[in-house]
Amino acid sequence: MAKPNIVILTGAGISAESGLKTFRDSDGLWNGYNVHEVATPEGFAKNPALVLDFYNQRRKDVAKAKPNAAHHFLSSLQEQYPTKIITQNIDNLHEKAGSKEVLHLHGEIFKMRSVANPFETYLIDGNIQLGDLAPDGSQLRPFIVWFNEEVPMLPKAIEWVTETTVFIIIGTSLQVYPAAGLVNFVAPNTPIIIIDKQIPTVSSIKNIIKIEQPATKGVESLPTLLQSLLS
Length: 231
Known about the structure:
Blueprint: E1 6-10, H1 12-16, E2 29-30, E3 33-34, H2 35-38, H3 41-46, H4 48-64, H5 69-77, E4 83-87, H6 93-96, E5 102-104, E6 107-114, E7 121-123, E8 140-144, H7 154-162, E9 166-170, E10 192-195, E11 208-211, H8 215-218, H9 222-230
Parallel strand pairs: 1-4, 1-9, 4-5, 9-10, 10-11
Antiparallel strand pairs: 2-3, 6-7, 6-8
């Protein structure tokens, strides 16, 4: 067995157990908002004030949220094995739990960016208002990768996944691309563990171990399972 190198992909399910509502939980709505209104460039162009207000509220929600047992388990896992975390979530609950090497595919709620330059980002803990400008003179917006936008961290995520000796997927429906496509970059014969209260359809992928439980419960099976796979 090669030197252990664990990569974990987390999705909305792990954050939902900390009380953060998601599109996934509400049939395409997020706190009553349609995805096209608040999570697309077109929605922002049509009503920027609405979008800014939406994420200002999400930032307040995340600031109050606490990591759950699954977040803390993954942090402790990093103390036992070389472990990297790729998350589809925009919250900072992995970091709050103490995890390092966390790659946010879809952006971060506590960062903002220039409308003109997606690579110019700034920390924020308050609100973004219309008229708040980046140093380049353009409107500031949340550092969130919206639907129909490129995912700049995807190449790094693919690099991590291709090198993993065990790939663990927690709390994601594997419906949002390109994140869902990461499973296709796992090397042949590499074990893939999926933890979710409703296991997504992955019939074309081999070497899958399914744990059909919520994230906080499902991670309890990982120590014994990893010991078996990595011994």
